[in-house]
Amino acid sequence: MTSTRSTKPGPRERLLATATRLFSTDGIRAVGIDRILREAGVAKASLYNTYGSKDELVVAYLRSVAERDRVLWRRRADRSPDARGRVLALFDIIRERVEPATPGSCHIGAAIEFPSPDTDGERSIRAAVADQRAWVAETLRAELAGMGLQDPDNIADLADRLALLHDGAVTAAMLGEVQTTSMTARSMAELILGMITDPI
Known about the structure:
By secondary structure, this protein is an all-alpha fold. Helices cover about 70% and strands about 0% of the residues.
């Protein structure tokens, strides 16, 4: 007689999937741990045995979404013929219809909810947000260098401008203004990139 192993996700996976769905739709502070446990069908002991606290579950959620966003970018970037296209891919993924939320929005949302962290857990949440923002900045700087820029100050300045546009496009997407605003931000990014590829 052959036995089959259950394919049902374990407590860790169910907690993360449920938290991701709830945090991204209702916000982090608004979702209590009891609701997560109830909808995940997991005992409270499992939460503390796997993540340790709600704050650490939030960090896991942010890291998971960050990896999702990076995969979305890599997929588009790999199809781009050059560094310019890879920069614009950061703006293109904002228009992708994906779950749990618009790429970039979960981290901006978390930053808004925890503006002045005063506990270790909240500082860990802000660190996860900072990691994702650092990835965007580092990606922009690397691709700008790939376009031929050599002056570090110039690279940093242009990367800051593009990051600001990116933040604006993501924030507008959070407000339901995805297509028009993201296309406008992309067009403005193309103008900035034109300073490099088509100098006067």
